Amino acid sequence: MAREYSGLQMHHQLEAKRKRLTWILGVSALCILFYVLGAWQTTPSSQYDVYTRVGCDNNSATPDSNGSNQSLTNLDFASHHQVALDSSKTISQFPPCDMAYSEYTPCQDKVRGRKFDRDMMKYRERHCPTKQEMLLCLIPAPPKYKTPFKWPQSRDYAWYDNIPHKELSIEKAVQNWIQVEGDRFRFPGGGTMFPRGADAYIDDIGELIPLTDGNIRTAVDTGCGVASFGAYLLKRNILTMSFAPRDTHEAQVQFALERGVPAMIGIIGSMRLPYPARAFDLAHCSRCLIPWQNNEGLYLMELDRILRPGGYWILSGPPINWKKYWRGWERTKEDLKQEQDAIENVARRLCWKKVTENNDLAIWQKPINHVGCVKEVMCKSEDPDTAWYRSLEACITPVPQVLSSDEVAGGELLKWPERAFSVPPRLSRGSVPGLGVDRFIEDNEQWKDKIAHYNRIIAPLRSGRYRNIMDMNAYLGGFAAAVAKYPVWVMNVIPAHIDYDTLGVIYERGLIGTYQDWCEAFSTYPRTYDLIHASGLFTLYQHRCDITYILLEMDRILRPEGSVIFRDTVELLVKIKSITDGMRWKSHIVDHESGPFNPEKILVAVKTYWTGEATKRKPK
């Protein structure tokens, strides 16, 4: 009996173990099944229109580029995450500003500018409102605002209702800057010194210096008008930063951006231009009315600072070819000769070489290094890249030291387009503390995945929906480099006072950009960008200034139906969304491109279409 009992007990023990094992395996299988289902449900969405993505129907599935079905999950963190930020009192809905503010440029306001000295054009420099003067309302579009023409048609046409100013078409009628044709403007490509058009003018320059071999990639056009020079350089793969002040030539920079051409409001006055040293391969002035010879050559010295070693300066208009034009310019021969002699003298002090003077064109070239240049007039400042609210200095900005007279100071750059992804000399030489070659290579690889993800969560970048793009915190310029193959251009912004200055790196990649403190307004007109990218920006600024005003500034410069991509922590994105919900934006949070387990998330937003109503009221 004992043996039978022992055998029976062993049988029951084996049966119990088998049941426990079956139960464990069953629970494990269920856990794995639910995990797979959960991961599948939070997979990023596929390519479909951004308006569908920010609308009500967030559960519709569509095939991705690989043919698989994915659905976009609208992530909701609002009830679980709170963070204290520097922001204004909660406003559920921001009201529209008066229509008189439709073209408001906060830091280039004409009324405020009149309070400042006219010496050295100080009254046309940046003068931003105090916090008490800043607007807590939305800048309205004109009543009949239309979506701008797509590139490349936009180079030649713009809707009259978007920029209802006929002044330039009358004032510059003979010079063919701009013409009114029914409900639109047409840009024939003319200019003060190129009556045959910018294309023919650039061809003339191309006969004198090489423009199409890839060595010249970045250019700056001072006093750009409607930026026809920059517009036609684009077909030669030259990217131009065009700038002009907000002056009597009403809305010239606004016209440039409406055309899809890079431009900023700016002026050479008493402050450095907001660009790093050794940024541009070419500088251009076509009757830009800048007194280059004044103030001991101060303005040419600033141009020398931002011009790359070996770069060119092109000058047309007074005083060049004064023997032919002196009567038309209503100036004396003696006056014009004296001006040109003074410019030539400053150029010699800068060690520039005069390449040619041919008819209406004069071209100088900056030396590739400062071997043999006069040392007594060199600037003593340690950082030539510092340019945000930095006063001009009557001295020559030194270039990096070289070992021989035939070495390019700062390092020689590859031709475009190889330049975009090659390691910039500033990084290979260790000029940016904390950033090296490995980080640059890693960043380029990361942007391949990021752009693929963006093409799924917004309208594809190749679609033509976007032309003017701004990267508010550009870092190494990886975003701009990755989208260079699309019909877009990117204004790369490096926030002022940041720990690392990478704007010089961005220019060495053949891209363009500027410095900016986002506690202030950007130097542009309203409704000038189609897509804004803000990665880590609010982490940087959350304790520096009121983020509500940064978001209102983004709304000011964003076109109706334009898009914004925020990348940041969930806590910050929830706060941003709570503010933009009151700005007539539609938005939602989606996962990082690496999947749902990355703590960084993405907020995709679209500014809805709305316009102001016609009114005769004026701003106070």
Automatic annotation (TrEMBL):
- What is the protein's major site of localization? endoplasmic reticulum
GO CC annotations?
Answer: endoplasmic reticulum membrane; endosome; trans-Golgi network
Keyword Transmembrane, does the record have it? yes
Q: Membrane-spanning residues where?
A: 21-40
Q: Name one GO molecular function term.
A: methyltransferase activity
Q: Name one Pfam family in it.
A: Methyltransf_29
- As recorded in UniProt, its EC number(s) are 2.1.1.-
Q: Which GO terms describe its biological process?
A: methylation
The compartments listed are: Endoplasmic reticulum membrane; Membrane
Keyword Membrane in annotation? yes
The protein's topology relative to the membrane is:
Single-pass type II membrane protein
What UniProt keywords are attached to this protein's entry? Glycoprotein, Membrane, Methyltransferase, Signal-anchor, Transferase, Transmembrane, Transmembrane helix
InterPro entries tied to this protein: Put_SAM_MeTrfase, SAM-dependent_MTases_sf
Family membership noted in the UniProt record: Belongs to the methyltransferase superfamily.
Cited PANTHER family = METHYLTRANSFERASE PMT18-RELATED, SAM-DEPENDENT METHYLTRANSFERASE
Q: Which protein is depicted?
A: Methyltransferase
